[in-house]
Protein backbone atom coordinates (compact mmCIF):
# COMPACT_ATOMS: atom_id res chain seq x y z
CA UNK A 1 0.00 0.00 0.00
CA UNK A 2 1.40 3.34 -1.05
CA UNK A 3 -0.21 6.72 -0.69
CA UNK A 4 -0.08 8.63 -3.98
CA UNK A 5 2.19 11.63 -4.02
CA UNK A 6 0.04 13.36 -6.64
CA UNK A 7 -3.17 12.88 -4.70
CA UNK A 8 -4.07 16.56 -4.65
CA UNK A 9 -2.77 17.64 -8.07
CA UNK A 10 -5.54 17.53 -10.64
CA UNK A 11 -4.13 18.57 -14.02
CA UNK A 12 -6.17 17.06 -16.86
CA UNK A 13 -7.66 18.82 -19.87
CA UNK A 14 -11.27 17.84 -20.52
CA UNK A 15 -11.86 20.66 -23.01
CA UNK A 16 -12.53 24.40 -23.23
CA UNK A 17 -15.74 26.24 -22.45
CA UNK A 18 -17.32 29.55 -23.36
CA UNK A 19 -16.67 32.67 -21.25
CA UNK A 20 -19.21 33.40 -18.57
CA UNK A 21 -20.47 36.84 -17.66
CA UNK A 22 -20.01 38.14 -14.16
CA UNK A 23 -22.06 36.80 -11.26
CA UNK A 24 -25.69 37.82 -11.09
CA UNK A 25 -26.72 41.13 -9.61
CA UNK A 26 -28.37 39.34 -6.71
CA UNK A 27 -25.11 37.80 -5.60
CA UNK A 28 -23.19 40.99 -6.21
CA UNK A 29 -25.66 42.87 -4.03
CA UNK A 30 -25.13 40.34 -1.25
CA UNK A 31 -21.35 40.66 -1.54
CA UNK A 32 -21.52 44.47 -1.56
CA UNK A 33 -23.79 44.48 1.47
CA UNK A 34 -21.36 42.23 3.32
CA UNK A 35 -18.46 44.49 2.37
CA UNK A 36 -20.25 47.58 3.66
CA UNK A 37 -20.32 46.13 7.14
CA UNK A 38 -16.57 45.44 7.17
CA UNK A 39 -13.62 47.75 7.92
CA UNK A 40 -12.63 50.09 5.14
CA UNK A 41 -9.33 48.35 4.37
CA UNK A 42 -11.21 45.12 3.64
CA UNK A 43 -13.58 46.98 1.34
CA UNK A 44 -10.60 48.41 -0.53
CA UNK A 45 -9.22 44.94 -1.06
CA UNK A 46 -12.50 43.77 -2.47
CA UNK A 47 -13.01 46.83 -4.63
CA UNK A 48 -9.84 45.75 -6.37
CA UNK A 49 -11.65 42.59 -7.39
CA UNK A 50 -13.44 44.25 -10.32
CA UNK A 51 -12.32 42.12 -13.25
CA UNK A 52 -13.54 40.39 -16.31
CA UNK A 53 -14.96 36.97 -15.56
CA UNK A 54 -12.35 34.26 -15.76
CA UNK A 55 -9.43 36.65 -16.29
CA UNK A 56 -6.01 35.22 -15.64
CA UNK A 57 -5.57 37.34 -12.53
CA UNK A 58 -8.37 39.01 -10.69
CA UNK A 59 -6.29 41.52 -8.74
CA UNK A 60 -8.27 40.79 -5.59
CA UNK A 61 -7.27 39.71 -2.12
CA UNK A 62 -9.82 37.77 -0.14
CA UNK A 63 -9.36 36.47 3.38
CA UNK A 64 -10.17 32.76 3.55
CA UNK A 65 -11.61 30.61 6.31
CA UNK A 66 -8.25 30.15 8.03
CA UNK A 67 -7.07 33.76 7.78
CA UNK A 68 -4.91 33.31 4.68
CA UNK A 69 -5.41 35.58 1.69
CA UNK A 70 -6.85 34.19 -1.54
CA UNK A 71 -6.48 35.82 -4.95
CA UNK A 72 -9.06 34.14 -7.16
CA UNK A 73 -10.61 34.05 -9.66
CA UNK A 74 -13.02 31.56 -8.17
CA UNK A 75 -14.67 28.61 -9.90
CA UNK A 76 -17.46 26.44 -8.54
CA UNK A 77 -18.73 22.95 -9.33
CA UNK A 78 -21.88 21.40 -7.87
CA UNK A 79 -22.91 17.77 -8.28
CA UNK A 80 -26.42 16.79 -7.20
CA UNK A 81 -26.49 13.03 -7.36
CA UNK A 82 -28.84 10.26 -6.34
CA UNK A 83 -27.36 10.11 -2.85
CA UNK A 84 -25.25 13.24 -2.27
CA UNK A 85 -25.18 16.96 -2.86
CA UNK A 86 -21.60 18.21 -3.22
CA UNK A 87 -20.04 21.59 -3.91
CA UNK A 88 -16.44 22.69 -4.50
CA UNK A 89 -15.17 26.26 -4.84
CA UNK A 90 -11.56 26.62 -5.94
CA UNK A 91 -8.99 29.04 -7.34
CA UNK A 92 -6.27 28.17 -9.87
CA UNK A 93 -2.74 27.91 -8.49
CA UNK A 94 -0.13 27.30 -11.18
CA UNK A 95 -0.57 23.84 -12.65
CA UNK A 96 -3.23 22.88 -10.11
CA UNK A 97 -6.10 24.38 -8.19
CA UNK A 98 -6.69 25.08 -4.53
CA UNK A 99 -10.02 24.34 -2.88
CA UNK A 100 -11.16 27.31 -0.81
CA UNK A 101 -14.59 26.03 0.25
CA UNK A 102 -16.62 22.85 -0.01
CA UNK A 103 -19.87 21.26 1.06
CA UNK A 104 -21.21 17.71 1.08
CA UNK A 105 -24.46 16.31 2.43
CA UNK A 106 -26.25 13.00 1.97
CA UNK A 107 -29.73 13.87 0.69
CA UNK A 108 -30.87 10.59 -0.93
CA UNK A 109 -32.68 12.43 -3.69
CA UNK A 110 -33.20 9.17 -5.57
CA UNK A 111 -34.85 7.39 -2.66
CA UNK A 112 -37.80 5.38 -4.00
CA UNK A 113 -37.29 6.32 -7.65
CA UNK A 114 -36.59 2.70 -8.57
CA UNK A 115 -39.99 1.64 -7.23
CA UNK A 116 -42.16 4.68 -7.86
CA UNK A 117 -40.49 6.33 -10.81
CA UNK A 118 -40.55 9.81 -9.28
CA UNK A 119 -38.79 11.95 -6.69
CA UNK A 120 -40.64 12.00 -3.38
CA UNK A 121 -41.58 15.24 -1.66
CA UNK A 122 -39.37 14.36 1.32
CA UNK A 123 -36.35 13.70 -0.88
CA UNK A 124 -36.90 16.93 -2.82
CA UNK A 125 -37.11 18.93 0.39
CA UNK A 126 -33.83 17.46 1.67
CA UNK A 127 -32.10 18.36 -1.58
CA UNK A 128 -33.56 21.87 -1.65
CA UNK A 129 -32.29 22.57 1.87
CA UNK A 130 -28.81 21.37 0.92
CA UNK A 131 -28.85 23.50 -2.23
CA UNK A 132 -29.76 26.56 -0.16
CA UNK A 133 -26.53 26.05 1.78
CA UNK A 134 -24.66 25.79 -1.51
CA UNK A 135 -26.29 29.02 -2.68
CA UNK A 136 -25.10 30.80 0.45
CA UNK A 137 -21.55 29.59 -0.14
CA UNK A 138 -21.64 30.73 -3.75
CA UNK A 139 -22.65 34.20 -2.60
CA UNK A 140 -19.62 34.65 -0.33
CA UNK A 141 -17.19 35.13 -3.24
CA UNK A 142 -17.40 36.61 -6.74
CA UNK A 143 -17.55 33.44 -8.80
CA UNK A 144 -16.07 33.72 -12.30
CA UNK A 145 -17.59 30.53 -13.69
CA UNK A 146 -19.72 27.74 -12.35
CA UNK A 147 -21.29 24.53 -13.55
CA UNK A 148 -24.12 22.96 -11.55
CA UNK A 149 -25.14 19.47 -12.60
CA UNK A 150 -27.79 16.89 -11.73
CA UNK A 151 -27.33 13.22 -12.61
CA UNK A 152 -29.18 9.90 -12.56
CA UNK A 153 -31.96 10.60 -10.06
CA UNK A 154 -33.24 13.52 -12.10
CA UNK A 155 -32.65 11.70 -15.39
CA UNK A 156 -34.66 8.69 -14.27
CA UNK A 157 -37.51 10.36 -12.39
CA UNK A 158 -40.62 11.38 -14.30
CA UNK A 159 -40.71 14.61 -12.30
CA UNK A 160 -36.97 15.28 -12.56
CA UNK A 161 -37.33 18.39 -14.71
CA UNK A 162 -40.16 19.66 -12.53
CA UNK A 163 -37.84 19.37 -9.54
CA UNK A 164 -35.11 21.36 -11.31
CA UNK A 165 -37.66 24.08 -12.03
CA UNK A 166 -38.57 24.07 -8.34
CA UNK A 167 -34.89 24.48 -7.45
CA UNK A 168 -34.59 27.40 -9.83
CA UNK A 169 -37.70 29.04 -8.34
CA UNK A 170 -37.02 28.42 -4.63
CA UNK A 171 -33.23 28.48 -4.49
CA UNK A 172 -32.25 30.56 -7.51
CA UNK A 173 -29.87 27.98 -8.96
CA UNK A 174 -30.27 26.58 -12.47
CA UNK A 175 -29.03 23.01 -12.56
CA UNK A 176 -28.14 21.20 -15.75
CA UNK A 177 -29.31 17.61 -16.16
CA UNK A 178 -26.27 16.05 -17.85
CA UNK A 179 -26.41 12.90 -19.96
CA UNK A 180 -24.52 9.72 -19.16
CA UNK A 181 -21.77 10.34 -21.69
CA UNK A 182 -20.96 13.69 -20.12
CA UNK A 183 -20.95 12.09 -16.68
CA UNK A 184 -18.48 9.42 -17.78
CA UNK A 185 -16.13 11.99 -19.34
CA UNK A 186 -16.25 14.29 -16.33
CA UNK A 187 -15.35 11.38 -14.06
CA UNK A 188 -12.41 10.60 -16.33
CA UNK A 189 -11.34 14.25 -16.30
CA UNK A 190 -11.36 14.43 -12.52
CA UNK A 191 -9.54 11.15 -11.92
CA UNK A 192 -7.02 11.06 -14.78
CA UNK A 193 -4.21 12.64 -12.69
CA UNK A 194 -4.15 9.43 -10.62
CA UNK A 195 -3.48 7.23 -13.64
CA UNK A 196 -0.15 5.42 -13.16
CA UNK A 197 2.22 6.77 -15.85
CA UNK A 198 4.08 3.45 -15.99
CA UNK A 199 0.98 1.57 -17.16
CA UNK A 200 -0.76 1.54 -20.55
CA UNK A 201 -4.20 2.28 -19.17
CA UNK A 202 -6.78 1.81 -16.45
CA UNK A 203 -10.33 0.66 -15.86
CA UNK A 204 -12.01 3.66 -14.25
CA UNK A 205 -15.27 3.03 -12.43
CA UNK A 206 -17.57 5.44 -10.65
CA UNK A 207 -20.18 3.76 -8.45
CA UNK A 208 -22.98 6.24 -7.93
CA UNK A 209 -26.32 6.18 -6.18
CA UNK A 210 -28.44 5.57 -9.27
CA UNK A 211 -25.92 4.64 -11.97
CA UNK A 212 -22.37 3.37 -12.32
CA UNK A 213 -19.93 4.41 -15.02
CA UNK A 214 -17.12 2.29 -16.48
CA UNK A 215 -14.45 4.01 -18.58
CA UNK A 216 -11.55 2.49 -20.49
CA UNK A 217 -8.60 4.89 -20.20
CA UNK A 218 -6.03 4.07 -22.88
CA UNK A 219 -2.66 5.81 -23.07
CA UNK A 220 -2.01 4.51 -26.61
CA UNK A 221 -4.78 6.57 -28.21
CA UNK A 222 -2.50 9.52 -28.90
CA UNK A 223 -2.44 13.15 -27.89
CA UNK A 224 -5.35 14.46 -29.94
CA UNK A 225 -7.87 11.72 -29.25
CA UNK A 226 -7.59 11.75 -25.46
CA UNK A 227 -7.51 8.97 -22.90
CA UNK A 228 -11.11 7.75 -23.12
CA UNK A 229 -11.31 4.83 -25.53
CA UNK A 230 -14.72 3.48 -24.48
CA UNK A 231 -17.30 3.98 -21.76
CA UNK A 232 -20.59 2.65 -20.45
CA UNK A 233 -23.18 3.81 -17.95
CA UNK A 234 -24.99 1.06 -16.07
CA UNK A 235 -28.46 1.91 -14.71
CA UNK A 236 -27.62 0.50 -11.30
CA UNK A 237 -26.18 2.22 -8.22
CA UNK A 238 -25.97 1.72 -4.48
CA UNK A 239 -29.38 3.26 -3.76
CA UNK A 240 -31.27 1.38 -6.47
CA UNK A 241 -29.57 -1.93 -5.64
CA UNK A 242 -30.10 -1.57 -1.88
CA UNK A 243 -33.77 -0.76 -2.41
CA UNK A 244 -34.15 -3.80 -4.65
CA UNK A 245 -32.48 -6.31 -2.33
CA UNK A 246 -32.37 -4.60 1.07
CA UNK A 247 -29.30 -3.13 2.65
CA UNK A 248 -29.65 -3.97 6.34
CA UNK A 249 -29.48 -7.77 6.48
CA UNK A 250 -27.40 -8.90 3.52
CA UNK A 251 -26.80 -12.64 3.50
CA UNK A 252 -24.15 -14.28 1.26
CA UNK A 253 -26.88 -15.42 -1.13
CA UNK A 254 -28.37 -11.91 -1.35
CA UNK A 255 -24.92 -10.43 -1.93
CA UNK A 256 -24.26 -12.87 -4.76
CA UNK A 257 -27.65 -12.10 -6.28
CA UNK A 258 -26.72 -8.41 -6.33
CA UNK A 259 -23.42 -9.22 -8.04
CA UNK A 260 -25.19 -11.23 -10.73
CA UNK A 261 -27.74 -8.46 -11.21
CA UNK A 262 -24.92 -6.02 -11.96
CA UNK A 263 -23.18 -8.44 -14.32
CA UNK A 264 -26.33 -8.63 -16.43
CA UNK A 265 -25.86 -4.95 -17.26
CA UNK A 266 -22.36 -5.40 -18.71
CA UNK A 267 -23.80 -6.00 -22.18
CA UNK A 268 -24.13 -2.21 -22.37
CA UNK A 269 -20.34 -1.91 -22.56
CA UNK A 270 -19.62 -2.54 -26.24
CA UNK A 271 -15.87 -2.76 -25.59
CA UNK A 272 -16.34 -5.44 -22.92
CA UNK A 273 -14.42 -8.21 -24.72
CA UNK A 274 -11.81 -5.87 -26.17
CA UNK A 275 -10.98 -4.54 -22.72
CA UNK A 276 -10.69 -8.07 -21.34
CA UNK A 277 -8.21 -8.90 -24.12
CA UNK A 278 -6.22 -5.74 -23.43
CA UNK A 279 -6.00 -6.60 -19.73
CA UNK A 280 -4.43 -9.97 -20.60
CA UNK A 281 -1.80 -8.43 -22.85
CA UNK A 282 -0.99 -5.03 -21.32
CA UNK A 283 -0.36 -3.37 -17.95
CA UNK A 284 -3.55 -1.93 -16.47
CA UNK A 285 -4.87 -1.04 -13.03
CA UNK A 286 -8.26 -0.28 -11.56
CA UNK A 287 -9.07 3.35 -10.75
CA UNK A 288 -12.08 3.67 -8.47
CA UNK A 289 -14.00 6.80 -7.50
CA UNK A 290 -17.05 6.46 -5.28
CA UNK A 291 -18.15 6.34 -1.68
CA UNK A 292 -17.77 2.58 -1.87
CA UNK A 293 -14.06 2.49 -2.67
CA UNK A 294 -13.19 5.41 -0.38
CA UNK A 295 -15.08 3.68 2.43
CA UNK A 296 -13.23 0.46 1.63
CA UNK A 297 -9.94 2.35 1.86
CA UNK A 298 -10.87 4.06 5.13
CA UNK A 299 -11.80 0.75 6.74
CA UNK A 300 -8.61 -0.82 5.35
CA UNK A 301 -6.50 1.91 6.99
CA UNK A 302 -8.44 1.64 10.28
CA UNK A 303 -8.93 5.39 10.31
CA UNK A 304 -10.51 6.78 13.51
CA UNK A 305 -12.44 9.11 11.20
CA UNK A 306 -12.50 9.48 7.44
CA UNK A 307 -9.53 11.50 6.14
CA UNK A 308 -9.42 12.37 2.45
CA UNK A 309 -5.69 13.09 2.57
CA UNK A 310 -4.99 9.50 3.58
CA UNK A 311 -7.42 7.95 1.10
CA UNK A 312 -7.09 9.91 -2.15
CA UNK A 313 -4.35 8.31 -4.23
CA UNK A 314 -4.07 5.19 -2.05
CA UNK A 315 -2.87 1.99 -3.75
CA UNK A 316 -4.42 -1.34 -2.76
CA UNK A 317 -3.23 -4.73 -3.94
CA UNK A 318 -5.61 -7.53 -4.92
CA UNK A 319 -5.00 -9.37 -1.63
CA UNK A 320 -5.81 -6.19 0.34
CA UNK A 321 -9.05 -5.74 -1.60
CA UNK A 322 -10.12 -9.33 -1.02
CA UNK A 323 -9.41 -9.06 2.71
CA UNK A 324 -11.40 -5.83 2.98
CA UNK A 325 -14.35 -7.20 1.01
CA UNK A 326 -14.45 -10.22 3.30
CA UNK A 327 -14.26 -8.01 6.38
CA UNK A 328 -17.07 -5.70 5.23
CA UNK A 329 -19.36 -8.56 4.20
CA UNK A 330 -18.91 -10.11 7.66
CA UNK A 331 -20.09 -6.93 9.41
CA UNK A 332 -23.69 -6.84 10.56
CA UNK A 333 -25.73 -3.65 10.35
CA UNK A 334 -24.79 -2.50 13.86
CA UNK A 335 -21.09 -3.02 13.19
CA UNK A 336 -21.31 -1.02 9.97
CA UNK A 337 -23.00 1.84 11.81
CA UNK A 338 -20.31 1.76 14.49
CA UNK A 339 -17.46 1.97 11.98
CA UNK A 340 -16.34 5.64 11.76
CA UNK A 341 -15.70 5.41 8.01
CA UNK A 342 -19.21 4.04 7.30
CA UNK A 343 -21.66 5.39 9.86
CA UNK A 344 -25.43 5.33 9.91
CA UNK A 345 -25.88 7.24 6.66
CA UNK A 346 -23.98 4.64 4.59
CA UNK A 347 -24.54 1.48 6.61
CA UNK A 348 -27.41 0.25 4.43
CA UNK A 349 -25.68 1.18 1.15
CA UNK A 350 -22.08 0.04 1.50
CA UNK A 351 -22.68 -3.66 0.73
CA UNK A 352 -24.66 -2.80 -2.39
CA UNK A 353 -21.63 -0.78 -3.47
CA UNK A 354 -19.36 -3.70 -2.65
CA UNK A 355 -21.51 -5.93 -4.86
CA UNK A 356 -21.10 -3.54 -7.80
CA UNK A 357 -17.36 -3.37 -7.17
CA UNK A 358 -17.15 -7.18 -6.93
CA UNK A 359 -18.89 -7.55 -10.30
CA UNK A 360 -16.50 -5.05 -11.92
CA UNK A 361 -13.29 -6.51 -10.53
CA UNK A 362 -14.30 -10.07 -11.40
CA UNK A 363 -15.10 -9.03 -14.98
CA UNK A 364 -11.95 -6.92 -15.52
CA UNK A 365 -9.39 -8.30 -13.10
CA UNK A 366 -6.34 -6.18 -12.21
CA UNK A 367 -3.70 -6.66 -9.56
CA UNK A 368 -3.89 -3.12 -8.21
CA UNK A 369 -6.55 -0.54 -7.39
CA UNK A 370 -5.96 3.16 -6.96
CA UNK A 371 -8.53 4.96 -4.84
CA UNK A 372 -9.75 8.39 -5.91
CA UNK A 373 -11.64 10.73 -3.61
CA UNK A 374 -12.42 12.98 -6.55
CA UNK A 375 -14.54 12.85 -9.66
CA UNK A 376 -17.19 14.96 -11.39
CA UNK A 377 -16.63 18.20 -9.47
CA UNK A 378 -12.88 18.14 -10.01
CA UNK A 379 -13.40 17.39 -13.69
CA UNK A 380 -15.72 20.38 -13.98
CA UNK A 381 -13.28 22.71 -12.21
CA UNK A 382 -10.38 21.68 -14.43
CA UNK A 383 -12.56 22.15 -17.50
CA UNK A 384 -13.67 25.64 -16.50
CA UNK A 385 -10.19 26.78 -15.50
CA UNK A 386 -8.63 25.44 -18.70
CA UNK A 387 -11.15 27.45 -20.71
CA UNK A 388 -9.79 30.66 -19.16
CA UNK A 389 -6.14 29.79 -19.69
CA UNK A 390 -5.37 28.64 -16.17
CA UNK A 391 -3.47 25.46 -15.29
CA UNK A 392 -0.93 23.87 -17.59
CA UNK A 393 -1.77 20.89 -19.81
CA UNK A 394 -0.21 17.56 -19.01
CA UNK A 395 2.12 16.47 -21.85
CA UNK A 396 0.08 13.28 -22.46
CA UNK A 397 -3.28 15.05 -22.77
CA UNK A 398 -4.91 16.52 -25.91
CA UNK A 399 -4.95 20.26 -26.46
CA UNK A 400 -7.86 20.20 -28.89
CA UNK A 401 -10.46 17.80 -27.56
CA UNK A 402 -13.18 18.91 -29.90
CA UNK A 403 -15.87 16.39 -28.98
CA UNK A 404 -16.02 17.66 -25.40
CA UNK A 405 -16.37 21.34 -26.21
CA UNK A 406 -20.11 21.08 -26.74
CA UNK A 407 -20.55 19.51 -23.31
CA UNK A 408 -18.65 22.35 -21.67
CA UNK A 409 -20.60 25.03 -23.48
CA UNK A 410 -23.91 23.40 -22.72
CA UNK A 411 -23.35 23.04 -19.02
CA UNK A 412 -21.98 26.36 -17.93
CA UNK A 413 -24.37 28.54 -15.92
CA UNK A 414 -24.33 31.57 -13.71
CA UNK A 415 -24.42 30.68 -10.07
CA UNK A 416 -27.61 32.61 -9.38
CA UNK A 417 -29.08 33.26 -12.81
CA UNK A 418 -32.10 31.50 -14.26
CA UNK A 419 -31.88 32.45 -17.94
CA UNK A 420 -30.23 30.62 -20.83
CA UNK A 421 -30.71 27.49 -22.87
CA UNK A 422 -29.54 23.98 -22.02
CA UNK A 423 -27.59 22.22 -24.71
CA UNK A 424 -26.26 18.69 -24.70
CA UNK A 425 -25.70 15.47 -26.62
CA UNK A 426 -28.29 12.77 -27.23
CA UNK A 427 -28.60 10.26 -24.40
CA UNK A 428 -26.68 7.01 -24.85
CA UNK A 429 -25.64 4.21 -22.52
CA UNK A 430 -22.12 3.63 -23.76
CA UNK A 431 -19.80 3.75 -26.71
CA UNK A 432 -16.38 3.88 -28.26
CA UNK A 433 -14.56 7.17 -28.72
Could you tell me the CATH topology label of the largest domain.
Nucleotidyltransferase, domain 5
**Regions with pLDDT < 50 over 5+ consecutive residues?**
1-53, 55-59, 398-428
CA radius of gyration = 21 Å
How many helices? 18
Overall helicity: 25-40%
- The named CATH superfamily of the largest domain: Exopolyphosphatase. Domain 2
The second-level CATH architecture of the largest domain is 2-Layer Sandwich
**What structural class is derived from the secondary structure elements?**
alpha/beta
Main sheet properties: 7 strands, mixed
Strand element count: 15
Head-to-tail CA distance between termini: 33 Å
Which term fits the overall shape? globular
Q: Work out the count of structural domains.
A: 2
Q: On the 0-100 scale, what is the average pLDDT?
A: 80
The side-by-side strand order for the widest beta sheet comes to 12-13-11-8-9-10-15
CATH class of the largest domain: Alpha Beta
Structure commentary:
The protein has 433 residues and is of the alpha/beta class. It has 2 domains: 25-179 and 403-423, 2-Layer Sandwich (Nucleotidyltransferase, domain 5); 182-372, Nucleotidyltransferase, domain 5, CATH 3.30.420.150. It contains 18 helices and 15 strands. It has helices spanning 25-36, 40-47, 113-116, 121-138, 152-156, 160-170, 180-191, 238-245, 252-263, 272-281, 291-300, 308-311, 318-330, 333-338, 343-346, 350-363, 376-387, 405-411, and strands spanning 62-63, 69-70, 74-80, 84-93, 96-106, 143-150, 176-177, 201-207, 212-218, 228-234, 284-290, 315-317, 368-372, 412-413, 430-432. Strands 12-13-11-8-9-10-15 form a 7-stranded mixed beta sheet, sandwiched between helices. Strands 3, 4, 5, 6, 7 and 14 form a 6-stranded mixed beta sheet that branches. A two-stranded antiparallel ribbon has the order 1-2. Helix 7 packs across helix 17 and helix 11 crosses helix 13. The protein is globular. The protein starts with 24 loop residues before the first helix and ends with a strand. Mean pLDDT is 80; it is low at 1-53, 55-59 and 398-428. InterPro entries: ATPase_NBD (IPR043129), GppA/Ppx_hydrolase (IPR050273), Ppx_GppA_N (IPR003695). This is Exopolyphosphatase/guanosine-5'-triphosphate, 3'-diphosphate pyrophosphatase. GO terms for molecular function: exopolyphosphatase activity; guanosine-5'-triphosphate,3'-diphosphate diphosphatase activity. Residues 32-64, 387-433 are annotated as: Disordered. Pfam families: Ppx-GppA (PF02541).
